[in-house]
Design brief:
With 79 residues, this protein is mainly alpha-helical. It has one domain. The N and C termini lie far apart (68 Å).
């Protein structure tokens, strides 16, 4: 269920929102999505968690992955 509310934004922020959108009617959708994403990030931060990118995950595990690869390669037989 949607509830109508009123918020106050600076003119320059509202202009940026409108420039970003194809249709001004999409303002509410954009603002709601931005607020939801902000809240989710804050929840993660408050628990000391944050989403790691794939690259960060790989880099954090690089040493272990390299050791595993070297181990696997040591089992290969020369042809």
């Amino acid at each position: 269920m949607k509830v109508t509310t009123s918020i106050t934004l600076s003119e320059n922020v509202l202009k940026e929102v409108d420039d970003f959108l194809d249709y001004p009617e999409d303002r509410s959708t954009l603002i709601e999505q931005a607020i939801r994403e902000y809240i989710e990030r804050q929840k993660g931060s408050s628990r000391g968690l944050r989403a790691l990118t794939d690259l960060e995950l790989i880099n954090n595990s690089a040493e272990d992955l390299n050791k595993e690869a070297e181990d696997i390669l040591s089992y290969q037989v020369a042809i």
